């Protein structure tokens, strides 16, 4: 099996090209690929599938066609899996790395194009090298909820980015928090689990964020989480739009909040490629 390894602000992925849509991805294969000792090691897997060969992508494109002609142009479907093998709707850093892979491998021209994700069609923009920007859609704020870390409870904003987030702005320094275990959360609000972001405001339109991701544990960055964090910080500052810098353990992301949209910009790099023989249980 051919693979490429890449990361976006150290949120890392195993990329699996699947040009004829023949690759099966049982959870056991994904967890083995993502295993940092027994496998390649990653926070998730990105399967690269031609949209026209994927029934799932076809359904998404049909559903989206009402939103405009652009969606029909998407050539590639990003099949994203978390490190535990679970399927997620969307991955912002993954999509930036996915786009970088398409351009670097000659499957897409530098510039702008669309990619199908389970959360819908997403527009990406990138040059032959450098940062990648993703149009992340409109963040949907669905009220407030709580998360617990140890005995401490944090209040946060429920933000739907296609996938579920709870973004908690706090005065407790996030650098000192123990995010090794899944934070407690309200299963009535998040029946399918949640990605939990903890953040401190550290300047004008600048936050420091750590995240515990559903299905992957603590990661060094989360793109959808960075947008959710910017939305929470903006609301607290009485703002709705503008550009926010989100410092994550793996680097810096820029989030631009618009009236009905959001953009995520940051680095996306490919670091290795090779052949792997699946020998998972
Ligand atoms: N790291 C991703 C989010 C990946 C999916 C998430 N763990 C979920 O289950 O919703 C990002 O960069 O957005």
TrEMBL record:
<feature type="site" description="Could be important to modulate the pK values of the two catalytic cysteine residues">
    <location>
        <position position="213"/>
    </location>
</feature>
<feature type="binding site">
    <location>
        <position position="195"/>
    </location>
    <ligand>
        <name>substrate</name>
    </ligand>
</feature>
<dbReference type="GO" id="GO:0009089">
    <property type="term" value="P:lysine biosynthetic process via diaminopimelate"/>
</dbReference>
<feature type="binding site">
    <location>
        <begin position="92"/>
        <end position="93"/>
    </location>
    <ligand>
        <name>substrate</name>
    </ligand>
</feature>
<feature type="binding site">
    <location>
        <position position="163"/>
    </location>
    <ligand>
        <name>substrate</name>
    </ligand>
</feature>
<feature type="binding site">
    <location>
        <position position="82"/>
    </location>
    <ligand>
        <name>substrate</name>
    </ligand>
</feature>
<feature type="active site" description="Proton donor">
    <location>
        <position position="91"/>
    </location>
</feature>
<protein>
    <recommendedName>
        <fullName>Diaminopimelate epimerase</fullName>
        <ecNumber>5.1.1.7</ecNumber>
    </recommendedName>
</protein>
<dbReference type="InterPro" id="IPR001653">
    <property type="entry name" value="DAP_epimerase_DapF"/>
</dbReference>
<dbReference type="Pfam" id="PF01678">
    <property type="entry name" value="DAP_epimerase"/>
</dbReference>
<dbReference type="GO" id="GO:0005829">
    <property type="term" value="C:cytosol"/>
</dbReference>
<keyword id="KW-0963">Cytoplasm</keyword>
<comment type="function">
    <text>Catalyzes the stereoinversion of LL-2,6-diaminopimelate (L,L-DAP) to meso-diaminopimelate (meso-DAP), a precursor of L-lysine and an essential component of the bacterial peptidoglycan.</text>
</comment>
<feature type="binding site">
    <location>
        <position position="11"/>
    </location>
    <ligand>
        <name>substrate</name>
    </ligand>
</feature>
<keyword id="KW-0457">Lysine biosynthesis</keyword>
<dbReference type="GO" id="GO:0008837">
    <property type="term" value="F:diaminopimelate epimerase activity"/>
</dbReference>
<comment type="pathway">
    <text>Amino-acid biosynthesis; L-lysine biosynthesis via DAP pathway; DL-2,6-diaminopimelate from LL-2,6-diaminopimelate: step 1/1.</text>
</comment>
<feature type="site" description="Could be important to modulate the pK values of the two catalytic cysteine residues">
    <location>
        <position position="165"/>
    </location>
</feature>
<feature type="binding site">
    <location>
        <begin position="213"/>
        <end position="214"/>
    </location>
    <ligand>
        <name>substrate</name>
    </ligand>
</feature>
<feature type="active site" description="Proton acceptor">
    <location>
        <position position="222"/>
    </location>
</feature>
<dbReference type="InterPro" id="IPR018510">
    <property type="entry name" value="DAP_epimerase_AS"/>
</dbReference>
<comment type="subunit">
    <text>Homodimer.</text>
</comment>
<feature type="binding site">
    <location>
        <begin position="223"/>
        <end position="224"/>
    </location>
    <ligand>
        <name>substrate</name>
    </ligand>
</feature>
<comment type="similarity">
    <text>Belongs to the diaminopimelate epimerase family.</text>
</comment>
<feature type="active site">
    <location>
        <position position="91"/>
    </location>
</feature>
<keyword id="KW-0413">Isomerase</keyword>
<keyword id="KW-0028">Amino-acid biosynthesis</keyword>
